[in-house]
Each structure stands twice: as structure tokens, then as C-alpha cells.
Design the sequence.
């Protein structure tokens, strides 16, 4: 009998807890369904304008917070060419919080008129120039195709080059001026050393990381240490070899 009484008490306790949870959940749902948006807070914006995000999400103050689908909003915002990642969250106080991580340009693409056209990141995503920020990155001259905000660059050699550029050590920034794509692959224009002129470098189609490593070693040992030498060409298209052409005085 005692065992049966304890079992009954336990069942009663579980039932009461269940009822309490359901009541609390219903109360919470009723409260959440009545909370409205009183603020849309955005962080991480540099090249993306607040007005652009507001136009994308179309959320106004006074809307019921419970009716806002954060997954849908994140998908919409992520379509902006400058947005790398986004997180949208609903705060119980009535704040809709939008945190944005923007893309980082690794180069600037030159247009057909010889003027900067778009920025480009390491994944091949092109971003329109906004005038809100500047970046000290090399130029790229190539026939990339017509710009579309939802289309990335798909050319394999170009993608490898962009990824390599993004991982270059900072001490190489001053060396690099412009990349030019030709039928024989990529050419690089080095920044002038001292009072010299820009030095063309043949890179070819691939293995850019190894070639930049070779180039840095050659630059430090030969170009910087021998200012009296004038190089007309540095060719890195051959396996682990550097072919140079010097200008005779």
C-alpha cells in the first residue's frame, strides 16, 4: 500500500509539473506574440549602408517580433555582394539585432577604360566600389566578364591567384603593383626598387604560392642588394628555376 501511495504522489507531482510547464509556455508564447519591434540595430557595416539592409529586410518598427523569420532575413541579407556572413536575432526587449561580417578585398579589378571597376575577395566574389573605404591592394587587369552581384569568378587560375594573394606576408605588399592575365598565364608588375623601374614577372597559370616564395628570396638577395643591376624580366614559369634578363648598360 505504501508503495502504491508513493507512486500516486509521484504521478501527481509529474502531472503538476507538466501543467506548470505548459502554462508557463503558453504565457511565454502569448507574451512573445505581443512584443513588437521598436529598434533595428546593425553592427559591422562599412561598405554596406543601413538603408540597403532596411530595403532588403523590409522590417518596420511596430511589427510583431514573433512573426519575423530570422532565417529568411539572413538569407536575404547574405545576397548582398559585400556580405560575407550575417546573424539576425530577436531580442525580447523588442530589438532586432543584425550583425554583419563584410568581405575583405584582396585586389581591385580594372575596367575596360583602364579605371578601377570592382573590388574582389579571395573567393572570387566581386564587390562594387562604394567610396566608404579604401584598401591598399594590387590591381588586376583581365577579361573577367560582365559584373553580376550574385556571380563569382569561376576561372580556376584566377581563383588560385586570389587565394594566394590573400595569404601573402605583409612584407610583400610594397613589392606588388599589378597583375595582368595573358594567353601565357599571369604576369606581375613589381613596384620599382629604389630609382629603378617596374619589373615584369612571368608567373604562368598555377603554383603561385611557391613562385611568390621564390620571388621574395630573389628580391631580397638580388634586387635590393644590387641596386646597380637593372632587370628587364623575371620568369618563374619553369620548375624551381628563376630565369632573368638583365639590361646591359
Sequence:
Amino acid at each position: 500500500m505504501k508503495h502504491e501511495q508513493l507512486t500516486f504522489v509521484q504521478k501527481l507531482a509529474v502531472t503538476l509539473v507538466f501543467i506548470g510547464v505548459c502554462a508557463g509556455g503558453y504565457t511565454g508564447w502569448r507574451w512573445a506574440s505581443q512584443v513588437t519591434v521598436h529598434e533595428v540595430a546593425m553592427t559591422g557595416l562599412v561598405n554596406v549602408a543601413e538603408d540597403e539592409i532596411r530595403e532588403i529586410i523590409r522590417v518596420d518598427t511596430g511589427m510583431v517580433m514573433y512573426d519575423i523569420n530570422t532565417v529568411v532575413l539572413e538569407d536575404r541579407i547574405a545576397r548582398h555582394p559585400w556580405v560575407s556572413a550575417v546573424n539576425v536575432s530577436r531580442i525580447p526587449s523588442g530589438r532586432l539585432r543584425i550583425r554583419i561580417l563584410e568581405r575583405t578585398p584582396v585586389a581591385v579589378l580594372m575596367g575596360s577604360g583602364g579605371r578601377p571597376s570592382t573590388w574582389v575577395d579571395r573567393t572570387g566574389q566581386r564587390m562594387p566600389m562604394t567610396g566608404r573605404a579604401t584598401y591598399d591592394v594590387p590591381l588586376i587587369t583581365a577579361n573577367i566578364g560582365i559584373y553580376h552581384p550574385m556571380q563569382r569568378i569561376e576561372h580556376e587560375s584566377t581563383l588560385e591567384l586570389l587565394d594566394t594573394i590573400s595569404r601573402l606576408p605583409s612584407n610583400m605588399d610594397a613589392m606588388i603593383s599589378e597583375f595582368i592575365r595573358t594567353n601565357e598565364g599571369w604576369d606581375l608588375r613589381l613596384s620599382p626598387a629604389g630609382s629603378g623601374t617596374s619589373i615584369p614577372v612571368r608567373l604562368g597559370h598555377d603554383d603561385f604560392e611557391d613562385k611568390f616564395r621564390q620571388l621574395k628570396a630573389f628580391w631580397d638577395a638580388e634586387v635590393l642588394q644590387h641596386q646597380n643591376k637593372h632587370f628587364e624580366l623575371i620568369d618563374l614559369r619553369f620548375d624551381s628555376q628563376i630565369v632573368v634578363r638583365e639590361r646591359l648598360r
Q: What stands out?
A: The mean pLDDT is 83. The chain has five helices and twelve strands.
